[in-house]
Write a structure and sequence with these properties.
5-stranded mixed sheet, 260 residues, 25% helix, phosphopantetheine, 26% strand, alpha+beta, Rossmann fold
Length: 260
């Protein structure tokens, strides 16, 4: 007899350890609710479905894999597990994408740069519909050869800024050929159930065009760090713009609002 499922949305779904710039690993606590709302909040943008074929390219120690695994499973799609040696060979990986008819590809910009070289030289058609970047800052100008070969509509290239502590992704920005003339990495708009603020050291909003620390709030925030109460209090701070006990996550990343 199967045991009763007594899980609730607030139960932990996973713990991922990251070291960041400190070199000392910290376990980030993410709940089932965090994960489920990520896909619900982005559904209008992506409309993933059972016809999609995904790859599990990344290690399960990297939270990009959470997006890959559950993006396929929650929508009834197919997940192709990529062998480690194939992830290290852009030629073999390109062949796998063609053979398995992959439609949704998630890549760090540095990994995609190697794949792009092979794909642009190949005559084999790829059925890709979406290429989603994460994990690193995107040098948009480096995508020029891809756009010259494949255009900027199909597949659609999307940049998503995100942090483990905010459940994989925070922002969404489709990338086009026009963006290749932009010297900065555009991160776009926040996922609808998240908020973000660019603040100074005293938690005041900075003026448009000025740099400040990016803070993230609302639905995607982790519970905190496992057995690291002091660090949790340092990085997950009270939201000065809310009276309901909400928190903000201090990313440590500098950002600015552009005028256009």
């Amino acid at each position: 007899e199967n045991p009763l499922n007594q899980n609730t949305p607030d139960n932990l779904a996973y713990v991922i350890y990251t070291s960041g710039s400190t070199g000392k690993p910290k376990g980030t606590l993410l709940t089932h609710h965090n994960l489920m709302r990520l896909f619900a909040a982005t559904d209008d943008w992506f409309a993933f479905n059972e016809k999609d074929v995904w790859t599990l390219f990344h290690s399960f120690a990297f939270d990009f894999s959470v997006w890959e695994i559950f993006g396929a499973l929650l929508h009834g799609g197919r997940l192709v597990i990529v062998a480690r040696e194939v992830t290290r060979s852009p030629e073999d990986f390109h062949a796998l994408l063609v053979e398995q008819q992959v439609t949704v590809l998630n890549q760090t910009p540095s990994a995609f740069k190697q794949l792009m070289r092979v794909a642009c030289d190949s005559s084999l058609p790829m059925p890709l519909q979406k290429v989603i970047f994460g994990g690193e800052a995107l040098d948009v100008a480096s995508l020029t050869p891809w756009f010259e070969r494949f255009g900027d509509q199909t597949p659609q290239l999307i940049n998503m800024y995100g942090i483990t502590e905010t459940t994989v992704h925070v922002t969404y920005r489709p990338i086009t050929l026009a963006d290749t003339h932009n010297p900065v990495s555009p991160i776009g708009e926040a996922i609808p159930d998240l908020s973000w603020y660019v603040l100074d050291a005293d938690f005041n909003p900075v003026a448009q065009g000025c740099s400040g620390e990016l803070h993230i709030g609302h639905a995607g925030l982790a519970r905190g760090y496992h057995n690291r109460a002091a660090l949790t209090a340092e990085r997950f701070v009270p939201d000065p713009f809310s009276s309901d006990g909400s928190r903000l996550y201090r990313t440590g990343d500098l950002a600015r609002y552009r005028s256009a």
